[in-house]
Amino acid sequence: MAARTSFDEVSSALKSILTPYAKDLVVDRASAMGYALSTSHLLPNGQKLFFAGVRKGKSYVSFYLMPVYMFPELLDGVSPTLSKRMQGKSCFNFKTADPAMLKELAKLTKASFARYKKEKLL
């Protein structure tokens, strides 16, 4: 049960990176297992454009950040430590809430939000 509690803390820390953006975005999911934000921008298929989310899994907590998939140059200058947390093109996996990595991820999230705004995707 200790691992689950730890993941609850990690999930909460990652969610706290996203909550400042909830006022400008759409909260698609807010549960014990995850939190997700989308824009009001509609894609050609009628779906809202995903911005970011947190999902608690069995082995780690995932932080999804769609702008880095759409605009990979946002990852320029990301530390090797945070890069090691990446799985795929827009997902970061965490087992612990390392303050330095959370700070860097918050900075990346802020830059990502600014990019969506610049591209008029909000």
How would you summarize what this structure contains?
The protein is an alpha+beta fold.
Q: Any guess at the CATH architecture?
A: Alpha-Beta Complex
CATH topology call: Aspartate Aminotransferase, domain 1
User: What Rg is obtained from the alpha carbons, in whole angstroms?
Assistant: 14 Å
Mean pLDDT: 94
Helical fraction: 25-40%
- Give the helix tally: 4
Q: Spans of 5+ residues with little confidence (pLDDT < 50)? A: none
The level-1 CATH class: Alpha Beta
Run of helices and strands: HEEEEHHEEH
Structural overview:
38% of the residues lie in helices and 28% in strands. With 122 residues, it is α+β, with helices and mostly antiparallel strands. It has a single domain, classed as Alpha-Beta Complex (Aspartate Aminotransferase, domain 1), CATH 3.90.1150. A six-stranded antiparallel β-sheet has the order 1-2-3-4-6-5. Helix 1 runs parallel beside helix 4 (99-118). It is globular and about 35 Å long.
